[in-house]
Amino acid sequence: MSRPKRAFKVMPGPKLAQFLKLLFAIVMSVILVLITPEAIEKPTDELSYGYFTRLLGSRFYPDSEVAKKSTFVVIINQKSLNEDNLTWPPPFEFHSDVIRRILKAEPAAVVLDFLLVDRRQDKSLDDLVATFSYAKNDLNIPIIVARGSFSAYGKTGIISDLEDHVTQAAGWSESGGHSAFRYALYPKDEENAAPSIAIEAFEAFCNNRKRDETAEAPASCDTRKNLEESAREMWVFWSSRVPDNSKVFQLDKGEPFEAVECTRAHLDDGPLDYIVDSILDLEPESSCPPQPWLPAHYFIKDPDNRIDEALKGRVVFYGFNLEGIQDTVKPPTTTNDIPGVFIHAMALENLIEWGSDYLSLTGSRANDYLPITADVLEVATLVVILLLYFLLAHYLTPYVQIFLDKKYKKVKYEYETTNNPFVHIKHVFLFLLAFYKNHSGRRIWLRWVKIALILLLEVLLLGAVLLGVSLYVEMGFFRIAPVNWMAILAIVGVVQFLSLRR
């Protein structure tokens, strides 16, 4: 005798109206991405990228030994000027003394991140010309000098006496302003483009490594030919390391100046900030930039050559940090603003780490036929998330309902047979809630638990998609900076009022 076949319950699928809701939600998401004004988009992108760097930077930034030993920064601060009773700008003789001391250490290149466009009737200009000539002709060490913009200074962006002895690089920012992330490799001004400081420094660093048989040349040096004027705008990825300046410049007690000490702190050690940072596993902020640095007057008062080893083979950046002259950036890894010269050093490190595969808002694999950008991936990610939400709501929810039906029967049995006080408290609460809402305890149980389960699944799904897209699709494959995850969260929240759930 054959057994009767069990009837298989077919779950009802979504209706046409629900498909139209999904389509409308997708269209609305795309429109929100396209119409977002630049004044909102730029700070949102930078905020997203900054938090991403704090959260995952230490895990995904290579921080190779080659990059760590590639840069050094010399800063003219107020104390450097006060040592000789100078004001800004100091005489050319001051720069000449500092640079000659740097050249003695045999660096790969020296970069001046300030403009030399005014002779100022300074008779010591000849000293600086002689120093630059000595570096180029006798030592074969390139001097890279920031030039003024074409709109302000025309074709000659520096003092004419110097231009035959130096390499000029763009001393302005095309679109980043004082951004700690946006860095144009070939900034444009009045239809003229000039290579950035990082590009020229990268060229000098690679040439130095090629000449020095004892030094390691990174593989990224082979990609220099790909860094042309059409190069993508870089989004600088900041390292979270803290330099140990005591190893760079060991000072004895009683010296006329002190060593630069760097520490870590959770947002100035505020208790609430510390708790939030600890929960999110954010890297503590540093009191120093990632690159080792020293004030300029240390180089003039270094009688026993203790800094030679620290500078040898590195690109030495020479900048300033003075009150009243604002040229600073605020990376996500430091507690305070830092001098703008450090973004050039960090951009150089990004090129050494990744070559032409540095992070940008345009994918490294993009072309005229496949224009993959951060906005394109943002739209694609939104579509994927909304589709998954739709499938979750209209195909998984009915099975959750069946699961909860069984779960309720189990809870009811526990209530009738157990002496566990927590079970009785739960049912008293459900009874009171049912009395207040005029619903049965079972309906309230199913309603609230079902919503909680669906919301939990949506949050887990959203987090998994955002993390997967940011790490593996954007950063890993297309080399796009993960700048859009906060915008996606906001847009998903906006379109939820359409109620894609059942």
UniProtKB/TrEMBL annotation:
Coiled coil: none annotated. Keywords: Membrane, Transmembrane, Transmembrane helix. The keyword ATP-binding does not apply. InterPro entries: CHASE2. The chain crosses the membrane at residues 379-400, 451-473, 479-500. Residues 41-389 form the CHASE2 domain. It comes from the Bacteria. SMART domains: CHASE2. This is CHASE2 domain-containing protein.
